[in-house]
Amino acid sequence: MDQNRHIQYVLSQLMTMDEITIEDHPHLPYGKKVVDQHGDYVIVCWDKKKKHVTYTFKGMESHFFIFEK
After folding, report:
1. So which domain of life are we looking at (predicted)?
2. Contact indicator for 34, 25 with CB cutoff of 8 Å
3. Among 14, 33, 38, 50, which residue's CB has the most CB atoms within a 10 Å radius?
4. Rounded Cα–Cα distance for residues 39 and 54 (Å)
5. Which helix (H) or strand (E) holds 47?
């Protein structure tokens, strides 16, 4: 599975809300910014070193977490 498909898979697993907006976040590899109706967000991207999908939340941009199935 390529990196873009990894990102799409993670987004489909994490997002259960009906009212979200998904935007490109070009500052990070394959980055996507998912914003809810309250303005809170999660940023999902590909970590080249770890070869995993990582994510962070609004206000925690200096900390990334690895998504594992």
Report:
1. Bacteria
2. no
3. 33
4. 20
5. strand 41-47
Tell me the backbone φ, ψ of residue 66, rounded to 5 degrees: -90, 130
Q: What is the pLDDT of residues 33-54, one digit of tens each?
A: 999 888 999 999 999 998 899 9
Query: How far is residue 18's CA from residue 65's CA, in Å, rounded to a whole number?
Result: 24
State how far the Cα of 1 lies from the Cα of 39, in Å rounded to an integer.
Answer: 31
Residues 10 and 53 sit within 8 Å (Cβ to Cβ): yes
For the chain, the structural domain boundaries read 3-66
Report yes or no: 43 and 56 within 8 Å, Cβ to Cβ. Answer: yes
pLDDT at residue 21 tops 70: yes
